[in-house]
Specification:
Layout lengths: L12 E5 L3 H6 L5 H22 L3 E8 L7 H24 L3 E5 L7 H14 L6 E8 L1 H17 L10 H7 L10 E4 L18 E4 L9 H12 L9 H6 L1
Parallel strand pairs: 1-2, 1-5, 2-4, 3-4, 5-6
The structure holds 3-methylbut-3-enyl trihydrogen diphosphate (2 copies) and magnesium ion (MG).
Magnesium ion (MG) binds next to loops.
């Protein structure tokens, strides 16, 4: 079983749109690639903090379905960086009882990277601490389309009654099956948009936007976001009074 949050106000599931690497690098007269490299330190910092806080699931947007539109050279550097980081960090993931899951259509990635991703998933599969989900070639719309396809196939095979399709069935067919809904969605880099991230799972997420560029987002910045979350009143359709009584 995953660790329970230490306090009620700790989100179970935090998702982060890690944006601003390119601008961080450009501001320093460096290549965009240098920004992506620097961003890996921020990943380490948020993973460590999430572990310490007893957060159950952390989902990081590393590569979107739309990022294929970038120059080939940048895409290929991102793949190299994935591979190197996975090789380097797998030990630490195990030492910290972290389970890694890659969510997204990885079939489009270089084979070596696909293999490494599957290996690291297997190597960490028995860990029961933080559930770290890396969204790679992920899009919220893609996820829903593949979920609908799976359910349609079950209907076509006579295994599923269309009347039995409900929100739970769709959620179970999502690549995030088993993970709690997003409680806190953070976007760094100043843009005020979701960019096709976890559309279904963020239905009731608290949104936190910060101008801080991803490579500057450290443990302290993450703590500030968590404090902000802790002060929000989550009503889920109820009145403020009802929530206070409960
Ligand atoms: C986010 O940083 C990283 C990825 C999308 C892979 P960007 O590369 O989008 O940085 P900006 O938005 O250009 O600054
Ligand atoms: C979103 O960042 C995707 C990731 C962080 C991986 P982008 O920089 O690609 O988002 P847009 O296209 O500016 O919305
Ligand atoms: Mg960007």
């Amino acid at each position: 079983m995953p660790k329970q949050p230490i306090s009620q106000n700790i989100p179970k599931h935090v998702a982060i749109i890690m944006d601003g690497n390119g601008r961080w690098a450009q501001a320093r007269g460096k290549s965009r690639t240098a920004g992506h490299r620097a961003g890996v330190d921020s990943v380490r910092a948020v993973v460590e903090t999430a572990t310490q806080k007893g957060i159950q699931a952390l989902t990081l947007f590393a590569f979107s379905s739309e990022n294929w539109r970038r120059p080939k050279s940048e895409v290929s550097v991102l793949f190299d960086l994935f591979l190197i980081t996975l090789q380097r960090e797998v030990r630490k993931l195990c030492d910290n009882n972290i389970r890694l899951r890659i969510i997204g259509d990885i079939s489009a990635f270089p084979e070596k990277l696909q293999r490494r991703m599957s290996e690291v998933e297997q190597e960490t599969a028995n860990n029961n601490g933080l559930w770290l989900q890396i969204a790679a070639n992920y899009g919220g719309r893609w996820d829903m389309a593949q979920a609908a396809r799976q359910l349609a196939e079950q209907v076509a095979q006579g295994k599923l009654d269309p009347q039995a399709i409900d929100e739970q069935k769709l959620a179970e067919a999502s690549v995030l099956a088993g993970s709690p809904d997003v409680d806190l969605l953070i976007r760094t880099g100043g843009e005020l948009r979701i960019s096709n991230f976890l559309l279904w799972h963020s239905a009731y997420a608290e949104l936190y936007f910060t101008p801080t560029l991803w490579p500057d987002f450290d443990a302290q910045a993450f703590n500030v976001a968590l404090l902000d979350f802790a002060q929000r009143q989550r009503r889920f359709g109820k009145t403020g009074e009802q929530v206070q009584v409960a």
